[in-house]
Amino acid sequence: MAEATNCSLAIGFATQCRVLHALFLRELVTRFGRDNLGVLWLVGEPMLFTLGVTLLWSFAGLAHRGNGIPIVAFAVTGYSSVLLWRNAATHCTYAIEVNRPLMFHRSVQAIDVCLARIALEVIGATGSFAFLSFFFVYFGLMPMPDNMADVVGGWLMLAWFGTSLALLIGAGCAFSDLVHRLWQPVSYIMFPMSGAAFMVEWLPKQLQEIVLYLPMVHGVELLRHGYFGNVVKAHYDMTYMSGCCLVITLLAVYLVRIAGHKIEF
After folding, report:
1. Are the beta carbons of 187 and 208 closer than 8 angstroms?
2. Which of 160, 173, 6 lies closest to 99, judged by CA?
3. What is the CA radius of gyration of the chain?
4. Which residue has the higher pLDDT, 6 or 128?
5. Who contacts 111 (Cβ-Cβ below 8 Å, separation ≥6)?
6. Inter-residue contact 120 to 199 (CB < 8 Å)
7. How far is CA 223 from each of CA 36, 41, 42, 178, rounded to the nearest angstrom?
8. Distances, alpha carbon 182 to alpha carbons 89, 121, 233, 249, in Å
9. Residue 13 or 101, more confident
């Protein structure tokens, strides 16, 4: 009995992996096409945005931010982190609605179409961040990370936050178009508060307590601590961020499941 159960689980898992792979390739081709640069835009699109902001901040801030932090490294770590969670949530808004016909196939679930879009954004943002970091480090415009484990850990936590947030927004949009309309202004408000343009240590004590309620701030602080070490004191609590991400993930998965049943009926 146990062997039969394990076999069924293995078959089910393999089937879902094939479904996700097929949906990912479909999203990739649909969004970027096969002509010109094609799939290179998966990394090129977020890279151009980040590079543009980096150049703008470099011209505005000359060589360094406060406390000796290179402005290039500050911009790359900040804006790349924003793209990671913001793009995933934005492109997941109508994922369930526009892929409604696919979900009449037995193996395709609502969460699958969301995860395919999220994977596309996470891979693109990660590739952009890795390429720009290597490029700027090679030319001496960014320091080598002080602690690579913190860099990877911060990035993975931000990816988890982006994934859970995107699932929540995607599920919400399946119930009401109001969620999509509200997400646009909310995302603009969250950007300056996300830690992309500041270190928590630079803020007054009252503001520090407020911004640290936002989960992504902790991920950005850990990421920058991995790059800059103790040049600036980093404020982060991974237990708090993990708890927030877990709650959002559980709520989002529950709502996506309900949205899937709503479509079926």
Report:
1. no
2. 173
3. 20
4. 128
5. 167, 253, 256, 257, 260
6. no
7. 34, 25, 23, 33
8. 12, 21, 35, 20
9. 101
Span 29-80, pLDDT tens digits: 777 766 655 566 667 667 777 777 777 766 665 545 455 677 888 888 888 8
**Which residue in 260, 246, 250 sits closest to 95, CA to CA?**
260
How much of the chain, in percent, has pLDDT values that exceed 70? 86
| Residue 247: partners with Cβ closer than 8 Å, 6 or more residues away | none
In the chain, which ranges are continuous DSSP H helix? 2-32, 41-61, 71-91, 95-98, 110-138, 148-175, 177-193, 205-211, 215-228, 238-264
Contact 122, 162 (CB under 8 A): yes
> How far out from the chain centre does Cα 2 lie?
38
- Cβ pair 42, 124 in contact under 8 A: yes
- With tokens 């961020």, the residue in question is 241
